[in-house]
Amino acid sequence: MPVLSTSRILAHWAGQQPDRIAIDHEGEAVTWAQLDAHTNRLARAYQALGVRQDDFVTIALPNGIEFFAACFAVWKLGATPQPISAKLPKHERDQIIELGKPSLIVGVAPGTYAQAASVAEGFAPEPALPDTPLPERTAASLKAMTSGGSTGRPKLIVSAAPAAWDTELPYLEIQQQGAMLVPGPLYHNGPFVWAMIALFRGCTVAITTRFDAEKTLATIERLQIDIVYMVPTMMRRIWALPEEVRTRYDLSCLKTLWHLAAPCPAWLKECFIDWLGAEVIWELYAGTEGQGTTMIRGDEWLDHKGSVGRPVEACEIRIVGESGETLPPGAVGEVFLRPLTGQGSTYRYIGAEAKSIEGGWESLGDLGWMDGDGYLYLTDRLSDMILSGGANIYPAEVEAAIDAFPGVRSSAVIGLPDEDMGARLHAIIDRPDGPVPDDALTAHLAEHLVRYKIPKSFEFVPDPVRDDAGKVRRKALRAARLETAS
To answer: Most CB contacts within 10 A, which of 76, 194, 357, 403?
Structure first.
C-alpha cells in the first residue's frame, strides 16, 4: 500500500469497512462512512470561511467526535490542525493565535477575532453542501502542537512530516483494524498522535471526555480494546480502585498498554506487569519535537529497572556534562538527542529557539544517564531543579518517595523562598483519604531520602496535582502559593 494523504484515509477505510465504528465517545459512535461524508461537507464549509492550502486551523474543542471531524476536514483542505485546550484562558489563546496566524479558529464564538474567522463548538455545515470527495490535497505539516516555553510564553511545534501515512506500516504496536482507547486530552501530542495513527491504521478509536478509572476498564471490556494509551497518573488511579472493582472487568483482549509523558514509579509499573503481563506494558520517551525516541517493553524493563529504553534506530542520544563533554556510562548529565536525518528534519518552532549544542544535538531539558548497554535512565527535568542550601534537589525523586506513601494519588514538590537556605521544599499532596500527620510522612520519607531532600512543609489538597495527561505545572503551583503568602 503506498503512502496515503490524510485527505484520503477516511475514504480508504470507508471503502473497506463502511459500517464499522470509527470513533466511540462514551457510547456515542460514528461509522467510517458517516465520518467520511460528514467531513467532506465540513471541509467545504471551512473552505468557504477562508481555509486554504497549508494554513493553520486552531481547534479549541473538547474530546469528542467533533474534534476528529474538525481535524480531518482541515486535512481534506490540505491545511494543518493546530489543537489547543478548549478551556484555555483567552490571554493564552490570544498568544497562540498571534503566533500561528490561523485562517480559522474552531470552538470560539464567531467574531471573536478580527484577523480570522471562527466557529463555535457544535458548528454544523449547511445541509445543502455536497458530501462527495474533494480534490486530494496534502498539507506540508501533519500537525502543529502547542507547548509552554522556558520564557513562560507558549510556542508552536510544527511537524516537518507531511500530512500522509502508510496505512500498512507497523507502528507503536497499533494493530491494523484493531481497537484503541485514548482517555487523555486530545490537544496534547501523545493522545493526539496515538488516536490519529490508530485511525490511519483503520482502528476503532474510543475516547472519553475525561479520565475515569472504572469507566476505562469498562470501555476496554465493552469495545474489546487491544491497545490503550495511558500516563502514570491514570495507572495510579486504576490501581487505587478496590481490588474487587479492578478485577471485575475482563481485560484479556488487551495486548498493549503504553505509558509515557511522566515518570512511572517502579512499584506501580511492577504492579501492572504482575497484573497484565510484562509483554503488555510498553514505555516510550520522546518529545513532541521528535528528535529522538526510546522504547522498552515490560519484560525488557525487568532486566533494566528504571530505564525508559534504548534509542530507536532513527536517532541517537548522548549524555552531556556541564562543560559540554560526553559523559561515560553511569554519569548523570543533560540528555541530548539527534535524528539521523539531521537537526531540524523532524520539526520547527514558532515562538522559540531550540536548546542545542555543536553537531546538531538538542535537549528537551531532561537529566539522565545511560548504562553500559545503552539504556537511558531519566532522573529529572533540568528546569525543575531546586537549589536549597547549596544542594541541587530534583523534585521527581522526592515525589516518587511521597507517592509511595499509602493512599497518595499524586504529588508535586516546589521550592518556596527561604532566607536561610535560599529555597525550602514544599510538598503538595493529593490524598483522597485525607491528610496524615506530618511526622508520619516525614518518617516514611526518611526511609527513602537523605535528610536535606525531605520537604519542610506539607499541604494536602482534594484534587489531583497532575492532569489527565500526567503533567504537573510546578510554576503555576508555586506562583499561587507565593501570591497567597504575599
So the answer is: 76
